[in-house]
Amino acid sequence: MEKTKKRAIICIAISLVIILLSGVVTSFIQTDGFTASMRELFLQTDSGYTMCAYLFVPKNATAETPAPAVVTSHGLYNNKEMQDANFVELVRRGFVVLAIDQSSHGDSQILPRALWDGVYQGALMLSRQPFVDKARIGITGHSMGGMSSNGAINSDNASGNQIISAVLLNCASPTVSTRNPETNETVYTNIYGTRKAGVLAAMYDEFFFSQRTEDGKTLRAPFYLESDNAKSFVNFGKDPAGLDAATPGKYYTETIDGVETFHVIYQPDIIHPWSHFSKKATTNVIEFFDKALGSPNPIEASNQIWQWKEAVNFIGFLAWMMFICSFCTFMVYTPAFASLRPKKEPEMLHADSKAGKIWFWCLLAAGALFGTLAYRPIVDWGRSMSVAQSEAMGLGLWSTACGLFAILSMLIYYFCFGKKNGYDGKATGVNLGFGNLLKTVLLALIVLTVAYGVLFTLDYFFYADFRLWTLSIKAFEAPILRYLPYVLLFFTYYIAASVAANCFNFSDATGKMSWVNTIVLSVFNAIPALVLPWIQYWHYYHAKDMMWPSSNMSVLWLFPIVLILIITTVVDRIVYKRTKNAYLPGIINAVIIGLMTITNTSTTLM
Q1: Closest by alpha carbon to 234, among 223, 219, 245, 242?
Q2: What is the pLDDT of residues 45-80, one digit of tens each?
């Protein structure tokens, strides 16, 4: 027992060192080797609301030598940190960068959607800085951020004092036409004027770049270059009738009001969310702003280091989970929580009989099948509700349904097989007793408080968090706590999943090696998140259309859940083997995943 405690202390120390190093390296990469300044700002915008943003100022940007600047914006259900590939690479090349949290996202103020104008407000802020070249301000936004960029162009046009000189729409369609209110006819126009304008049109985009043919058929993003929208855009607002299809990567030039400008469409062979995590897409962003605004520090566009930041962030995340597991182990060796410490490490249940194996594999398969079939209808139902956070509601309801199914499965197993074959709930830890259950809840709260203290410290000193593509665990401001009730929706599943994995399925039905059992359970838990996106995108790549067009967003939300369901199962098993307590890791996982959900989404003003 003393050996286990010492091992836990060593693991705590190692994990904290790794987390510290991840923060230092992240800061080093984000600030171009500590040469650029990075600050988190809370701006009072001209529109009267508070907007949160990261401001990066490279060493070459001074009042004497002002530098070009770019506003970067995330899309719906995201936050400013998701633009890390863009801000890392643009800062390296000498651009001032303002990475914003759109209204109702991240740490910005919650507003009605009609009032979201973050990109334009960011451009206004940059235009007032002495270290910014006022003639070279660009904007770019992904998805909804691209729509906000179009809105920024409209606001800039209406202001009578143009401050934006370049715009790149990332996975968002350009505005090329309006409707004549009298005749209802389409009127083609060039709202971008003399600005350099580009579109990054992901070849397999799920949300934008679709067109309707005369016979009513929908052609999706793979056919975008042949659309009227693309033809008109690259021809500066001309009527597309009779024009050739757009050529990807070609810079179409035109002289407007005596100014030579260009339009371009890039078409990397990626899906909509992969633009956040794509070397091809990032190359297009770099190339566009280098050509449109001029890089003060030219570096080949293919020379990119943002991937190292993502890798280091993910290593930090794994170290954070290691810290949580080790800290749980250490705490059960303190006098206050000694009653939660097992006398010996839990042993695998004997289920290697034919009947035992049938029950094991059938219940695993049933759980995976239920989760897969229930996902779309339940999540889409949750998304349709008039709630502040539709994503949290949808995913939370699905989690609750899967948790209830897991509880039902365990009851069926117990009464139909386990009870008759010597299953002992007390021996496996299902029956903790009321006193120990209260201690379990208290210990989980202590562990979570300390773990998030580590996360907030990392954010405070290094502006670093734990992320890999769409998986993100980040610090947050106090107002987000009003949405804690959504976190409760995740408790049923993560606690039930931990009890199922450790008190019922920690068995030799998969062989004598416990690590094999852990892998099997992890894979089966992740099956819904693996199968549904595979079906959706296999169909898209081959048929050039979505399998479930109405569930595009819901299916996208499954990408981080693959890792989440695998990692939480591993955490369940590690903590259980050290504490013989399946409820402790279940509570911890539920809170972490719940907080991750409510801090990385859009909030509607109710």
Answers
A1: 245
A2: 999 999 999 999 999 999 999 999 999 999 999 999
Residue 320 has pLDDT above 80, yes or no: yes
C-alpha distances out from residue 300 to 92, 198, 266, 303, Å: 11, 19, 17, 5
- CA proximity to 467, closest of 53, 79, 48, 59: 79
What residue segments make up the domains of the chain, in order of their start?
36-299, 309-424+433-599
177-179 and 186-188 as β-strands: parallel, antiparallel, unpaired?
antiparallel
Query: Which residue shows structure tokens 């949750």?
Result: 382
- Check residue 167 and report its DSSP letter: E
Please list the residues that pair with 98 across neighbouring strands: 55, 71
- Count the Cβ atoms, other than its own, within 10 Å of residue 532: 22
In b/e form, how buried is each residue of 537-556, taking b as 16+ CB within 10 angstroms? beebeeeeebeeeebebbbb
- The whole-model pTM stands at 0.96
Return d(Cα 54, Cα 32) in angstroms, integer: 15
- Is residue 376 within 8 A of residue 532, CB to CB? The reply is yes
Give residue 606's pLDDT.
Answer: 64
**For residues 324 and 316, what is the distance between their CA atoms, to the nearest angstrom?**
12
Q: Which distant-in-sequence residues (6+ apart) come within 8 Å of 6 by Cβ?
A: none
**Closest Cα partner for 102 from 132, 82, 128?**
82
SS3 57: strand
> Positive or negative CA dihedral for 570, 574, 576, 582?
negative
Q: What is the pLDDT of residues 360-375, one digit of tens each?
A: 999 999 999 999 999 9
CB neighbours of residue 571 within 10 Å: 22
The alpha carbon of 88 is separated from its chain's Cα centroid by a whole number of angstroms, namely: 18
**Alpha-carbon gap, residue 297 to 295, rounded angstroms:** 5
Express each pLDDT in 78-94 by its tens digit.
999 999 999 999 999 99
Comparing C-alpha atoms, which of 205, 561, 527 is closest to residue 535?
Answer: 527
End-to-end CA distance of the chain: 53
DSSP 3-state assignment of 177? strand
List phi, psi (to 5°) of 555. Answer: -65, -35
Give dist(CA 147, CA 165) in Å, integer: 17
Residue that is written with structure tokens 């507003």 in the block: 111
Cα distance between residue 316 and residue 471, in whole Å:
13
Q: Is the pLDDT of residue 527 over 70?
A: yes
Quick check: 502 pLDDT over 70?
yes
CATH architecture of structural domain 36-299: 3-Layer(aba) Sandwich (3.40)
Residue bearing tokens 């839990």: 346
Q: Which single residue is written with the structure tokens 């070279």? A: 136
Strand 259-266 and strand 252-256: the pairing is: antiparallel
Give the long-range contacts of residues 381-387, CB within 8 A, separation 24 or more. 383/553, 383/554, 386/606, 387/604, 387/606
Measured between alpha carbons, how far is 596 from 598 in angstroms, rounded to an integer? 6
The SS3 call for residue 43 is strand
Tell me which residue has tokens 């734990």: 466
What percent of the chain has a predicted confidence (pLDDT) above 90? Answer: 90
Question: Within 10 A of 237 (CB to CB), how many other CB atoms are there?
Answer: 21
